Amino acid sequence: MKTNAIEEALVERFLRYVRVPSQSKANGGKVVPSTEEQWDMAHLLQKELEALGMQEVSLSDKCVLTAYLPANLPPDAPRVPAIGFCAHLDTVDVSLSPVVKPQRISYAGDDIVLNAEKNIVMRATEHPELTPYVGQELIVTDGTSVLGADNKAAIANIMTALATLAGDPALRHGEVYVAFVPDEECGLWGSKNMDFTKFPVDYAYTIDCCALGEVVYETFNAGSAEVTIYGVSAHPMSAKGVLVNPTLLAVDFVNLFDRRETPECTEGTEGYIWCQAIRSNPTTAMVELNIRDHDKTRYEERKRLIVANVEKLRQMEPRCRVEYTIEDTYGNIADAVTDENRQAIDNIYEAMEGLGITPRTISMRGGTDGSFISTKGILTPNYFTGGLNFHSNYEFLPIPSLRKSYELTMALIALTYKKAQ
């Protein structure tokens, strides 16, 4: 398929997908998927996978959609590693409209009027990230929603690649598995509910970061802690020596941590403990903490610090009762790298070189579905969708970058086959 035809196929799919509302809602994984709308996206893709002739198309009761394209190998060919691609069905809820009204424009370098009626303008002086894309076609929002390139650009990429492979028997490849999962934006709950017997790959890729050339195989180790402080209530007129105020104790507890090691004071690979919320009443206070660090040893030290500070609080006020829970959320992809699976990462750089893409390797201050999948023994690095300004009504997707992301997907599949010969 010619470049222009590929571009149009990618854009057509992307525009179709973003018009399906599929925001997720944070609920701590109590119900997965968190919104009914994500089923609409899953059912659409299920039908398309079946129409393409994919095998073992399966939609779980948790809205995890899996399928695979059988290997297309000549007789007596050596085994080719099975590879997988994962993208998420949901778009983020940042209190904007769930309905996406995309616009395709040619960017000349000036301000972009996203919505004249509402006077929503993307000003070039305020958005220098637009500068490299002067002269290119962009897909933008109408200013009332996110665009949803996070992660529907990846879905369009993967589905177009499957269509290309299925339509051309001359393109040799091993087994290619796909997984489309819900609720990535609110805790990676989709990947945590994957049936990995339906994703039996040697390694995999997520396509879930930003500008052209970005590569991620180092993410945070992530966990959460919940500390519950039980005080003693009393009427203020007779409170002296009786009242144990859990709200004040929660403040005392939070103040035991180093204020310099918080999200607003750290960058790069510096970790933190983030007091995300304090909820209290006259008898009980609950403190929610997020724990993040790229280094596994430091991450474990931060968990131990929380336990030590709980004990300090108990000593400060023996009349209170303090309980806590600490849970791991996801791991650093880099901790899953071995000599045997390193090829998954090396292939990204080799394929980029062949495509003339300059790599930009990032230590992500966050995580992807691959951060969890990698903890299951399936190394899953991440590469760019091409989109920028995710989680914003100023999100935009340069069409040439979307095409390059697709070309990288195809190159990785081809390279995996080539290296096995």
Can you tell me about this structure?
The chain is an alpha+beta fold and 421 residues long. The chain folds into two domains: 3-219 and 332-420, Aminopeptidase; 225-330, Alpha-Beta Plaits. The protein is built from nine helices and 17 strands. The protein has helices at 3-18, 37-51, 149-167, 189-192, 246-254, 296-316, 343-355, 369-373, 399-420; strands at 55-59, 65-69, 83-88, 103-106, 112-115, 120-122, 137-140, 176-181, 203-209, 214-218, 221-230, 272-280, 284-293, 321-330, 360-363, 382-384, 396-398. The chain has an eight-stranded mixed beta sheet with strand order 1-2-8-3-9-16-10-15. Strands 12-13-11-14 form a four-stranded antiparallel beta sheet, with helices on one face. Helix 1 packs across helix 3 (149-167), helix 1 packs across helix 9 (399-420) and helix 7 (343-355) crosses helix 9. The radius of gyration is 24 Å and the shape is globular. It starts with a helix and ends with a helix.
